[in-house]
Design brief:
By secondary structure, the protein is of the alpha/beta class. The chain has one domain: Rossmann fold (3-Layer(aba) Sandwich), CATH 3.40.50.2300. It is built from four helices and three strands; from the N terminus they run αβαβαβα. α2 links the parallel β1 and β2.
Length: 83
């Protein structure tokens, strides 16, 4: 993951909460704690967890999208985080 971040230098990260071998919430907080990635906006995505649950758990995400998500809503959220 960190090699990819160094290579691609993303403007934003869309990160699913439930990953096969990891937890997106943990990765989000890890990325936000590192100097080289702390300023990259992270949007968590989940079909099983509500936004209120994410915000209640001290997760440092900049945004949240519930699956299945609306394309227009997604674009609006991403644009707001990039501006």
């Amino acid at each position: 993951l960190f090699n990819m971040l160094d290579e691609f230098k993303p403007d934003i990260i869309l990160l699913d909460i439930y990953l096969k071998d990891s937890d997106g919430r943990y990765l989000c907080n890890l990325l936000k704690s590192l100097g080289k990635t702390e300023n990259i906006p992270i949007v968590l995505i989940s079909g099983m967890m509500e936004e209120s649950e994410v915000s209640e758990r001290d997760i440092l995400a900049d945004g949240f999208l519930y699956k299945p998500f609306d394309l227009d809503e997604s674009i609006q959220k991403i644009r707001s985080l990039l501006n």
